[in-house]
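Supplementary Text 2. Reproducibility record for the structural model of the 732-residue chain.

All settings were left at their defaults, and a single model was retained for analysis rather than an ensemble. We include the record here because the model underlies the residue-level annotations in Supplementary Table 4.
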Amino acid sequence: MIHKVIYASFLCATAVSSFPALSETVLNRPDMSLTSNFTPVDTAVNNNPLLKKWEGPNGGLPPLDKVKTENFKPALEAAMAENLSEIDRITSNPEKPTFENTIAAMEKTGQTLIRVQTIYGIWSSTMSDEAFQSVEQEMEPVMAAFYDKITQNEKLFKRIEAVYNAPEKKKLTPEQQRLTWLYYTNFVRAGAALSPAAKAEVSEINQKLAGLFTKFSQNLLADESEQVVVIEKEEDLAGLPQSLIDAAANAAAKKKKGKWVITNTRSSVDPFLTYSSNRELREKVWKMFINRGDNGDKNDNNAIITEILQLRARRAHLLGFKTHAHWRLENTMAKTPERTIELMEAVWTPAVARVHEEVKDMQALADKEGANIKIEPWDYRYYAEKVRKARYDLDQTEVKQYLQLEKLREGMFWVAGELFDFEFSPVSNIPVNHPDVRVWEVKNKKTGAHVGYWYFDAFAREGKRSGAWMNAYRDQQKLIGNVTTIVSNNSNFVQGKEGEPILISWDDAVTLFHEFGHALHGLSSNVTYPSLSGTNVVRDYVEFPSQLLEHWLSTPEVLQRFALHYQTGKPIPSTLAEKIKKASTFNQGFATTEYLASALIDMKLHLSELPKINPDSFEAATLKDLGMPRELVMRHRTPQFAHIFSGDSYSAGYYSYLWSDVLTADAYQAFTEAKGPYDKNVASRLNKYVFSVGNTIDPEIGYRGFRGRDPKIDALMKKRGFPVKNPEKKAK
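Retained model, structure tokens:
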């Protein structure tokens, strides 16, 4: 298959993986072929569950219950050897290169490796213990070199180039032409047209980066796993809702029995900062969280980041680009870094102005209470909640009583049924990697046809990285049989008392719908070729479907059916729902600025031509130049910015959430301009031109097909409560 992220198609607000990255020694020895160094699949298959074809209905299911850590290395080696043999058969074909014998043939390769890397990615993100981390440290550089060996295969590239330049290409279907373009473009971007010396250097860089990405991720996971704040006294729980107290007690049960523990993850930290009236503890918890990867110890990520930035800059120059940012954005919707900065700066100014207003309101309230403090970052969430309650009579603890995790999951299923005709049914006896994981079969509710499977891994645990994300276990395609999609949604909710419902915040509920949007994007895929399937679209378009689905959480249909009080079972009162609606733009200065600060730092780091960057110093100086309000920090500070330093996937691409939200706000307006959020005609267009087409068409063309025009930025500004200066201005 095409050179891309296969084993970890992680899509989310907080998740990323390293690029799939044969030891350089093996690759560069002239007397030894790569294949000869590995055990062929056919002799290893009987003993290694990772190398067997997936068994079960509808194309099979991953054997997650049979996998052991020691299976990964031999399985990866054998699968890579098999893949290279497949490539050899294509390049040694004496016939003239055609779409079928080259491009389509490539799409059929690597099936064993895809399956192995899928499960490898699951272990990396959710089952990462010391033994597995050792495997990662060894195999990530090996895989990076392996993929370079494919993209730098001169015979293979010449065949791809011949198909791309052939007059016969015009006779191919639009999807086949798109796939041919994608192969050619990605190979060139990976260095296929470079000199042998430049190719070797690029490969060396990729291997080094793979190791650094792994180390960064493992350092961050260590800080999140090892650092906690222990609450010793019951009076120090003042202000916390009972559900959070129960979760903190549950987190302490293993190591600090009789105490309460705030873990170093956002799902634990954010609610504590929102409700705890103990200012000293708020500061302690806040500092623990924002200093992940930045403590000057064995888990410090600063030196790693410096090296990553240097290597990325050198690779970009070798590939013919001014900076890493220019390389990353060449084939996105934005096309250039300058266009992203223009958009971000257009939103930054009103966002910062709103922050100053929010701080003023909070400070006035603190002064009125006689707190005798100056608002600091660890005070922001706490006093923002107080202002929200005073201004809108909206208490988030009251809202939370209606937000049961399981009921909201049912609500997501219902929305999927209304918009996409999907029906979810729980299935048992499905192999899973942990008892927390549950599985549903997805069918078309009108035809009964099988659509795919949806896995739900909802709870935090040791060895699982923080945040929330979607992971594609298998992409839909019709080339090799009629293969359906398998996706998973992953969260880090903290379990409370056994038998009691898990209550989540409004923000967490929004994230739940967001990640489910990614899942629906994958499940809706209806393409022929796997490399064009589902969520395999450009980075600044992939967040569009997920961010769009967030809007359906607040629809009356969902709130009345599924926002049910955890004790009485009664739906959320219409008066409370109206308060939520009125407060929808509240605190948008904070939310937008903390995000944009991270997005701007990401872009400026990767535009910088400094020979060596100190991450902490660069961050501080850049934020000062931007006029960053002192009362808040970046959503992801540089030493913990996993989106951009645990892999290349989101690097110089964190802006994509804002870029996509321009599309999101404009697209939802299409529903409101029609008969409402469940308008069948608009939903049909959305599925036809956005959710089902994958990467078979240019996303700009797809969006125009859905909306009938290009998106406009005014809907985004209205959504966030910012002034609209040019109501008719189109998004660039």
